[in-house]
């Protein structure tokens, strides 16, 4: 059983989805989705513990030995991201019951849960696979499921947002496939580890560089790297609450994982970062993302769009760590996968509770007015998560900023430190807008129902918020895991 | 279109052959072009042809919507089930080698069932897509969206 | 010159890819955008399959007397990619149908106008 864990990680949600469609009832769908999410968390933790002992787990799908067969490969970085994705799923799935019941028609519930299971299977598969084309397949499985989930949003704008995401996301995936095709033509293999070895021996570098460019742009579209982020604000703002939380916390993170995997494991990092202006490019784009997206968030009226732009900025922090490219900044990048996932997830889960109680389909800052009195726990949670976004000591966000700043200082990039601090101050501006409305607002628009969100939604949301604080104090898993992953990545050819 | 005698006669003559061809393509995937996806599409095309000529209501009487949805899910479960069977019999996921008394027959059996699952799902999906698109915005009394 | 002409499959690939992207970006009608997307994906199929045929290679089924077989792996990969493309197209079309019902139009500028007017 234990050797089958890598397969079970993907097979469990993949079996649950058609089962939910067969049974065809929303209640069973929710129960199956929740059970599977918790089971996936257990499997991910099991894999992480095993990887801590053995280093790398290699699982041959169909018993065909790699590199001929598809290989599932779990190392420190994959295990870290697996735990992140399944943790978010395990918290978001129980939350979904009341949230989905309020936002989506009854006879579509079972389809929603089937799509959610497929999305989870796709995300987990993307992380665990060691085969380039298999990664594309799982990328598309998760993306298609995400397009459907977003389109189920309450307003008609959700359809346009989903269509826009579909176009851009498919272009991204197509570019990724072109890159993989060029690499396959040059190396003759699709197995990532084997490809890495064979690429060292390739002399004609032009197709390899073209492949790198295509893969960067393709995955950049998926992870909403500035300026390829156009789909993100609408997609996060208009989708159902649980979907916003789940996708915001996991979707871009898994694509960042794929980018890290290609940059450090498959391609040779030494020529990449020395001869090509990769560092400068990533730093420039990240700074642009951090500054511009944060500024737009300050002036945004719709609350969910505000936090969606905040996500673009936070992804900028992660790619900044990749651009600076030393152990500390890379640790900051990888730990921010977890920290931002937990923070943004908490924010969107809490906002979902507000949406349920207010009964409105779109939330402006004004509708948060007086939240501190109406829903004190939710408002307090929003404050904590907001502090984590800013990076106040004691929250998870601070840990990330700390490592990014240390990494920047190590290379003498003092202007970058100034930028990180400045953008954190801009984050104060937009978080303050939310907090001000909640606590100092007059409660202008009367909500449909009073009181806190139902327990089924409040408990997961507050649990995620508690994790924001927990990962700010106990960094043994978050930073320990991230540091190991960063060391593994940098060990490559340096 | 069911009032046009030429279309009706041709449809009734060719649909059985289309379905048999779909089965042929399904089972000859390892010897020539073919396999589950292609066979599923051909089978669905035959049924869509029937629905186009004789009307969506007649098509849905032949293959009701709920059967199509169950077909969809059953095919995927069949595929995943073959994988789980591989795990249960001692191999890895989707291990065909352990499915029969010797590896080559195991491969035959595994591919056969996997392709059957794929064909079932693809036929179901194509039919479902047709039903969903054709059934929207129609003014039929017998059929409402 | 003959080398350039010999790589005609790559030229067609590039043409399809760029044409697809242009249609996707330049046309405001949602259906046309989907057609551009489909064209882009088709160019990728060609990119994989054309190099898979080895000169003098026969079909990849074991037969007596042949030593060079064409590579079957690109075909398998592209079958998968085609299915993904079909699923994406079907989903895109479904969303376009719903947009048409919700907005009454499938022109991008009209949809944006109606959203702006509703705000």
What does this structure look like?
The complex is a heterotrimer of chains A (494), B (145) and C (119). By secondary structure, chain A is mainly α. Chain A has 20 helices and two strands. Chain A has helices at 5-23, 26-54, 76-103, 109-128, 132-151, 157-187, 192-200, 206-223, 232-238, 241-266, 269-275, 278-299, 303-324, 327-358, 371-374, 376-390, 396-410, 414-440, 455-473, 478-491, and strands at 57-60, 71-74. In chain A, helix 6 packs antiparallel against helix 8 (206-223). The radius of gyration of chain A is 21 Å and the shape is globular. In chain B, helix 1 (5-27) runs antiparallel to helix 2, helix 2 (36-54) runs parallel beside helix 5 and helix 4 (65-88) packs antiparallel against helix 5. Chain B is built from five helices and no strands. Chain C is 72% helix and 0% strand. Classes of the chains: A mainly alpha (494), B mainly alpha (145), C mainly alpha (119). Chains A and C meet through helix 5 and helix 6 of A and helix 2, helix 3 and helix 4 of C.
Structural key phrases:
heterotrimer, A: 494 residues, mainly alpha, two-stranded antiparallel sheet, 20 helices, 2 strands, 78% helix, 2% strand, C: 119 residues, Helix Hairpins, 5 helices, 72% helix, elongated
What topology does this entry show?
The complex is a heterotrimer of chains A (494), B (145) and C (119).
Chain A: H1 5-23, H2 26-54, E1 57-60, E2 71-74, H3 76-103, H4 109-128, H5 132-151, H6 157-187, H7 192-200, H8 206-223, H9 232-238, H10 241-266, H11 269-275, H12 278-299, H13 303-324, H14 327-358, H15 371-374, H16 376-390, H17 396-410, H18 414-440, H19 455-473, H20 478-491
Antiparallel strand pairs in A: 1-2
Chain B: H1 5-27, H2 36-54, H3 56-62, H4 65-88, H5 103-134
Helix pairs in contact in B: 1-2, 2-3, 2-5, 4-5
Chain C: H1 2-6, H2 8-26, H3 30-49, H4 73-103, H5 108-118
Helix pairs in contact in C: 2-3, 3-4
